[in-house]
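Q: How would the structure tokens look for this protein?
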Amino acid sequence: MTLQEIIVDIHALNEDLEMYERKYGVLSDTFYEAYVNGEEPENDAWVLDWADWQAHTKSFCAAASNINVPFRNCACKRKRKVIVSRLESVKRIAYRHRI
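A: Here is the predicted structure in token form.
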């Protein structure tokens, strides 16, 4: 996977996580912890969203690990902002050096 592909993936996944956070009023790290501890949605209509949200959270963390960000707590909104900011720096450096 190229650096550009990782950057595109992380930005897209971050947007997806923010969409779920707005929709359900819960931060992704809080949601993910509850999900992996077996908490189920109070509304059956949310089941597919929750499964998708969980998958997006895992994918975001896996993509972040490609740029040496530890998996633990990578879904935290504050940490996601740092990751996206770090990616922008990496992207600028790569552009300058034509990597």
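Helices lie at 3-24, 28-36, 47-65, 77-96.

The chain has one domain: 3-96.

Upvote if useful.
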